[in-house]
Design goal:
The structure is a homohexamer of 297-residue chains. Chain A starts with a helix and ends with a strand. The first copy, chain A, has two domains: 26-181, serine acetyltransferase, domain 1 (Orthogonal Bundle), CATH 1.10.3130; 188-285, UDP N-Acetylglucosamine Acyltransferase, domain 1 (3 Solenoid), CATH 2.160.10. In chain A, strands 1-4-7-10-13 form a five-stranded parallel β-sheet. Chain A has nine helices and 15 strands. The first copy, chain A, has 297 residues and is of the alpha/beta class. The first copy, chain A, is globular. Chains in contact: A-B, A-C, A-D, A-E, B-C, B-E, B-F, C-D, C-F, D-E, D-F, E-F. At the A-B interface, helix 3, helix 5, helix 6, helix 7 and strand 15 of A face helix 1, helix 9, strand 13 and strand 14 of B.
């Protein structure tokens, strides 16, 4: 190496002593993102075995193979939970043995919830099929629809969030966000038969509550009114409550701790910050009268 | 394994007998997503050999190498088509030999269309270069522009859609959607010299028809008015027809079976559900007069 | 192969002689995208070693390991720069030795900027933590927030852009765009403490200038007014200047060579094409009065 | 595909109906070789953590990381044992649940033996260091000596053989054979402080018994006299017993159910089929008198 | 880079102009070794599908999956043959189209031979099971015995050798040599029911002919008497002919164009350069009388 | 996990505190074997670029690509040397900076020797071609002959041994040993035009000296007489000196600090422990008279 190159290297090494927030050289535990992503692949095999069969070659009998897949996923989940728990101050003082114990219980609870999660996903699949005339069959939805993919990851991440596991739920939901453009916070509460179409740009905030049979189109925001409060708002309700059988069309925003009643329809690009009673249709007034149309000649 | 862990595993295995839509343990055929993604990589080598040269090391002469790449892609396409055809009820009763025969013919037809697809992509490349002042040269567009990537995949998926192959076109278009945020249904019909800029959030619906020389910016929706009809709308025209030389700026929506005439310009955020005659410019009326501007003091 | 298959293959090979823009069989150099992506992974290890430790197993001492990571990244950067420079007409006539020399100098300059980049990223991390009540701790932001990921890649790509390296900055920024839906042109100028939330659909154009402590939400466009001029606009200022401590809420657009003064707040969906003085709040007028609300009964 | 190619394919498919021994299209379980090889890698991490640290990134603390490695290896071992047991007629009739139970007990027993195996390997390492003047330090032996590698795999495979697991021990010992040319049957019994130098061509048969502190050089055979009896000899003692502190030089053969007493030295190329009393040196008589030496002129 | 490093690099680049035999910078075709190794894996799936099932996920039905595996292997074989043919002077002048044609015919002929090869391997498997008392069942032989592995590769490589394909047969046989220590030249002719035990160090030369039911143990050489003639001996018979039902024990050598009659047994370490009539047993005379036995005291 | 499984895990963790030689939990540096293997692949590209072209895609021009390959190999070599040096007591006390400096100098010296190594390998290639009538052309030798592969690795490892780098030379030579069964100690001194045929079982000891134009066949040992002295013999001459133009046939052993004069021929299975004058042929006396030949009837 040339002297000048070596100086550049040394300057970077020295820079790690600078007292910055990002100046970590070692972390005792760390929930590796790639490991979370492969756990998600394993969980897809657990949930939808016929569609995502295990790559493993130890058994041809599908039930035996599924059993091995489930056990493998349980072990990996437990290890990831062990690596994630110390990120939370509550666990920082625990001994490794206690953390391992805790991680085992959390993992078992998570896997006990899988049948419930599968039952919910079954309703979601049917809702998408009913709602999208372009859907040719259910297999296509399961294998190719970003909405179903994002909902699946949300439902898994939400279970972990309920079990108060740090880091992992957010890494999972950001995986879905990255793959689909759909950003559902794992803290949100979402009922059965949830339908998302296209999905890019959808935001569902942390304290949002969504009822049964809700449909969201691309670009819908269920967000907070203002985040100027920053960390002082932590844990406070600041996102909407959406009733059952509500449809929200593309680009609409519902902001703040408002309630949209059951059976409402919210039109494209509508911007709402107040409560809407049940069975109401809200659209932009004279949306097209507002246009200026000029002949180019 | 502890007893309680084993119970969790058994509960999941039992849950597969629950009669759910998602309860498949085996599918005789299944178009594996990863295989479709690697076929797409092979097809990029087929289309743009100099830019995506084969990784194979069997030949240094580029023509020989390209020949091998094409043959490899043909075989993989045929196998994927074989795995996909039984997903369609029309093929479910066919013998394996008949499906193999059919898959061979479809694959041959697909590859015969490649020169035509390359000719179209050539016009798309030129259109992007002409339209984007930030484009430094054509190579940059080919290697780095999400719009060009999404259009390429659309043009490939559309050919398969025309050949009535199930599943594969949608898996391909969702690949592009996931990578770029651009969601073009493979059933849409799009003319030459198509230009997409930025692209995130664009939706082009199944029965959309787009002319020559059209430009779309990020967040544009060419969608359906309402999907309340669900599966009853299947196959019906429900998306717009866009003429030639039309530009549609960011965030605009054109919904339903409307027609935008040749040469129109549709401004940002415009929302249209009716026909617009040729050579018309449509913008939001007094878009900025509408603002409320307050000094903070 | 059947005769008809062989004809399809030959037709594709012949098609490469057709004089198209895309008809390249060989490129002497070419900045391979996968190589850029792995360089980005190495640069994340350089910037945030504790969070993205090297996979290499040659040293357990983190400082030694980091040194190896930095040197490896320098070599790969130099090779990528060597492969990219000839894409620019200015370098096309240079000898290989001269290009290698130039690539060495550019690489050294890039790595000398790393401490400065790390200092900026430190401010960005703090800004996100302060601004997002859902952020549980700084590690979560570093490992899982798409905004921080996109800003990091922007800051790296921007340094390369300043060093006038062709192709690489754009491939990097499109990587971030693909992963996050956030499209920041590497030519943009962005001050410290930059905060992006959710981010999907954000566009920041090539000649944009952004001050210190700015917050952007999903779907914000800082773009050009019209690109009808195409390549004739190349290099001209056509994007906004955003002052310090400005917040721009979801879906807002600021277009053209306008200036938003320090301390402004721009509301959701606002569309601005003119200058806004400092300390001004701009929102949609009577945004909700504009709604048409119908009871469904 | 051409007709003639298709005929070749069909002929192969038809050939599977031919009633051959090798005509299996499906095996319900199957101990996949690649999985055994990766289990071996995991077991090397379990045995020698500092030398073969886990690739996993979930923990930096070596004890935590080792714990995860051990648990991962236990799960994989259990699954491999589950896949292997049905290869033995004794298990063919068991239910899956019984096999899983049995596999769990075998796996636990195997891992309980690990400290004992490590104690034996410690003596082997010391023996090699003492015996080989070319050995620079113990780390070199642990990382690079084929003899130590083969002995390690033998000791692991032998434990599984003692637990009567079918298939896995042999796949493991053939792995060592392939990597080193040293073929030790997992059924052999070998005492502590075992030393192998160079090793290529060594054969140690199934019913061989070897004492403490034995040294073997390349090409040594401890084999059976004749195998004409074939399967009728199964399980019968047909290989030598080697006492403690015996050295056997390159190319020597000891065949049949003979005994070499403690402290013997067996010279190069010696061929022995009878008992040798303790403390005896056996060499070829006048090995060099036997040569015919001609000047070439 | 430092100047002195750069000089070292330049010296290497310059060295390629030195007119050496090894000074190739480009080869138009080249049968890549890794590709041959993966073809071998595919051929093992073709031969023994139940034991080496395809990793592909496109079909669960084993016959469909096997068909895809065979077709994939045929394509890869054809491409490898295309890359290998120009290595032979006879093909150097052919056009690419002619070589492709030739490669297609060779490949088809090779795959037509597969049922015959499978029939031979079936006899080999039975012979090993009959001959080795340590063999627990046939599956173990198929999955773990180096002798069966080497014979399988020999039988495949021999077919290609008969079809006069350059390079590939030797790369295949060296693969087996590397994995097992068994070096069988693909030009050798070997009858059914061939049995190899342990195998390390076995050499079977190019013009060797072996009858039916022959057994070879480790370290057996069937070689040439002297190779002083070098290239002048090319193609001449210079290796032994071994009759049927011959057993040759460990370390024996049979050299030159000699004949060992049917039913012979050749003892350990025997060295033979002349013909042996049928049904003869040849052993070392007084092999053990020759030993010098000393008490160490 | 069940309690008993957990106990097994804990027992293993506790076992690491047992004060064994193998009880390392952490090593500050460690020359990772996989990294050495990939360095060897890079060095094969450096030595024989046309045969082992780089997989990298950054440049199509072979000289540019080779330059990048050489630089990449230099960096990896330097890092491996840095990780290996502290294994030697002489370096244990050095600072990291000093070790880095030293590693840089060693690496540069190694790469300066490459042209000399290539010149030697050129003579080896020619010698093999001249000596083996089965060799069809030089490309086959370069791509498929284990003898040439082992000699290449020996010549590389020997340079590192001369530069007194610990660990790496031995890991390299064991790689060749594992792949070919040829075990050449990197400390041996071997002249040009070295020819190895078949090779399995060859052993060439640490202090062996071999002249020009020597041929070795499978199973030849050039070894020490006795290693009873163990570590006390370290560094002492204990292996043979082989003159030029010597041929040693299969299975022969030359042991101890003896000298075989120029032009000698040593026959199969000969065992020599004393000096042989130049131009002598040594064979087993009446090797075949010694046989006992019995008719089986």
């Amino acid at each position: 190496m040339q002297r000048s190159d070596r100086q550049a290297v040394d300057a970077i090494l020295n820079d790690y002593a600078g007292g910055r927030l990002i100046d970590r050289m070692e972390m005792p535990h760390r929930p590796d993102k790639e490991s979370v992503y492969s756990l998600l692949e394993e969980l897809f095999s657990v949930l939808f075995y016929g569609y995502y069969p295990s790559k493993a070659r130890l058994a041809d009998d599908p039930t035996d193979a599924l059993r091995m897949v489930v056990e493998e996923a349980m072990l990996h989940m437990r290890h990831l939970v062990m690596s994630a728990l110390p990120c939370d101050a509550r666990y920082a003082a625990m001994s490794t043995a206690e953390i391992a114990e805790e991680a085992g219980e959390i993992t078992e609870a998570f896997f006990r919830s899988i049948p419930r999660v599968r039952a919910l996903l079954d309703t979601d699949l049917q809702a998408i099929f009913n709602g999208d005339p372009a859907a040719e069959n259910r297999d296509e939805i399961l294998l190719a629809y970003p909405g179903f993919y994002a909902i699946t990851i949300y439902r898994l991440a939400h279970e972990l969030q309920m079990l108060q596991v740090p880091m992992l739920p957010r890494i999972m939901s950001e995986r879905a966000h990255s793959q689909t453009g759909i950003d559902i916070h794992p803290g949100a509460t979402i009922g059965p038969s949830f339908f998302i179409d296209h999905g890019t740009g959808i935001v569902v905030g942390e304290t949002t509550v969504i009822g049964e049979g809700v449909k969201l189109y691309q670009g819908v925001t269920l967000g907070a009114l203002s985040t100027r409060g920053g960390q002082s708002l932590r844990g406070k309700r600041r996102h909407p409550t959406i009733g059952s059988s509500v449809t929200i069309y593309a680009g609409a925003s519902v902001l703040g701790d408002t309630t949209i009643g059951d059976g409402c329809t919210i039109g494209s690009n509508v911007f709402i910050t107040r409560d809407i009673p049940a069975d109401t249709t809200v659209t932009m007034q004279d949306q097209e009268l507002n246009l200026r149309i000029r002949d180019r000649h």
